[in-house]
Give the backbone structure.
Amino acid sequence: MANPMKVGLIGFGNIGTGVVDLLNRSGALIGSRLPRPIEIARIADLDTESARMCEYDPAILSTDVDGLLGDPEIEAVIELIGGYEPARTFVERALRAGKHVVTANKAMLARHGADLMANAPKGAALLYEAAIGGGIPIVRTIHQGLAANNITSIRAIINGTSNYILSSMESGSVTFKEALAEAQRLGYAEPDPTFDIDGTDPGHKIVLLASQCFGQDVRFDDIMVEGIQKLTPMDFAYAAELKYRIKLLAIAKRDGPGAPAEVRVSPTLLSRASMLAQVSGVFNAVEVIGDPIGPTLYYGRGAGPAPTASAVVSDLMALASASAEGGLERETRLRIPVGQKNLKPREETETEYYLRFQVVDQPGTMAVISKILGENKISIKSMIQHGEDRSETAPVIIITHTAREGDVQRALNAIRETKINKAEPVVLRVEEA
Amino acid sequence: MANPMKVGLIGFGNIGTGVVDLLNRSGALIGSRLPRPIEIARIADLDTESARMCEYDPAILSTDVDGLLGDPEIEAVIELIGGYEPARTFVERALRAGKHVVTANKAMLARHGADLMANAPKGAALLYEAAIGGGIPIVRTIHQGLAANNITSIRAIINGTSNYILSSMESGSVTFKEALAEAQRLGYAEPDPTFDIDGTDPGHKIVLLASQCFGQDVRFDDIMVEGIQKLTPMDFAYAAELKYRIKLLAIAKRDGPGAPAEVRVSPTLLSRASMLAQVSGVFNAVEVIGDPIGPTLYYGRGAGPAPTASAVVSDLMALASASAEGGLERETRLRIPVGQKNLKPREETETEYYLRFQVVDQPGTMAVISKILGENKISIKSMIQHGEDRSETAPVIIITHTAREGDVQRALNAIRETKINKAEPVVLRVEEA
């Protein structure tokens, strides 16, 4: 058997434990699919004391990151500490030393990935299958399986926590707060769930997918991100009446090479007829539309030590193969040109909208709203107006045809200034099947 | 730019035209993802006269397969003529000459694939992404994205024609004959639809998937295949009542390396709660469960020139990369050991069953049936018995708990011999979410 590829693991928490456990349990099977075995030769973590749920040689665990990064025998480094720093610095140092890096760190990549790849020496690859939906092998699938395609659309449910909360709100008619509390009780939401519910985490992931698919240097600060905190049971009820589900969708679209791209995360009414709308609970899915392949969809668990370990080890296997047999260039062709981007200004983005107004319940109200919408080139596709007994105001729900964001914002400003408008309008986006 | 990889195309029908058209239309994009361009240098087809829906140089089209196979400049051959012969011979000759082969020919591969790969010289790859659901990049995804997994279960809807017919029967309560006629009128079924409706085509595909995932030499003649011809609107109605859909499922399962595998195609009641049950019309999907990744699902168009061209060209791109940069061994690791297989005998396979009996409508009937089932170690999970007015017989529908095929066949034989049984029992398999 050829000499093993020695790997250094930085970060020995749940995910790191999952990686070591997988290599322990499935070492023979994995080895049978490789020209050389994979060996975790060093582990660095601030915590060297806690018990881990896997077998490992205590002699290889230390707090000595410098020793790991400086060890010439280490060919690849797995970064699993998360966050921006010191993760970025460790990854940069590993790449500069000519080592490959495998990471699950979407936040760091969405901010620094393009620079790290651009500055890495030719023979050092930065792979990140685990950064987007650990249980969906989407990075390599787009890179290789869909290699012949011009990808025009990605629509993704890529945050399990928020999808779990939305599924609960839909099926249980509970409030956001109640659904979040339940998710925390079940371990599906962190004690501080901010990044999962405010759209940051799926924002990081769609930045990576958009960069890869469009070959552009899209960064997190470039994109529009909205979370699910303001959704109410009322909106779920209207969505259901109109045959939609509400999902936190991460979207990246462009017409083709050269056309400006649109990248955003927002709670969205999604037609119940679509495959994507069937994705419930903590599961994730990525729909990719390409020319010539047409619509495709990839579904699996979004997070957790086991699926993430699958992704990390698949990257290690690509590196073990390439180091023995060649083909590393193919892996590093994921690099994107730093600074090159072509994004649609937010006001020019186009979609259908769900608008919910709370207005005075009297004749002529609809005429005021539809006049303002019409003046702003927004046409109405469907509408719900239920009179509410003994109330002076009533909700009006409108689904628009495709409209420009700038026009919608102008119309909303005008409606806010009318006397009939009695509450801040609710604005959600709408996606058909 | 490096010298192009010259490719010979055998078979210039709809799919071949799709491949040439894709390389014409997206040549720049595809080239930007490769170290060397791909050039269709020769095309061989018996028909050199008919107009094709793509631009091509008429000078490269001829009937001369020998010239193509003997041309030392041709590095890769695309085989798109289908059927067993002369396709097999052409592929064998190309491989022997050290050329790579890309094929969409599932029938030929399900019978001869293992031998062809085993006898190919080391530097010649036989790739077949297009053979299983052209619009789902499943072969490369399993090979690379899921490389770290022990795959324990594949359940797939991999025949668009039959899925279209079943979707029609479910939604329109039409007979099999009516649904087939409609599919033919719409071009979703061939004038001779035999292989699509009798399970042969999905059988070919599940043989390829099982061989790949389990590393076994499974051939078409080894597996159990049932078609959809005998399904009646009555079974769809009962399936709906029990919250199932009826799908033609191709299944391959095993507990792990070393355990015997179960590979079959049969019309199956599938829980409506599963993602797979949402796949309707001509779409295909493959659910793969692996350890550690858990359940995953891949969805897309099953057939058609455009999706199939995507798959063929993705294989060509892997070859163009590997020929310039190395890594071909990784592609050829799809080879499986000829003759090595470990399959569960049919009578030992286990699943839940749907049994529909037409029995005399009188007291004691159920006692007879349940006694025979119990004697054969089959326990009842749920049951429907609707008395029918003015009829001397009535249907009894039973969903069993997991039972062995051999026990079920014995029980059926016993029930057939009773006086209460008035028609051939209907037996379908059942899969939960």
In short: The longest helix of chain B spans residues 305-325. Chain B has a mean pLDDT of 95.
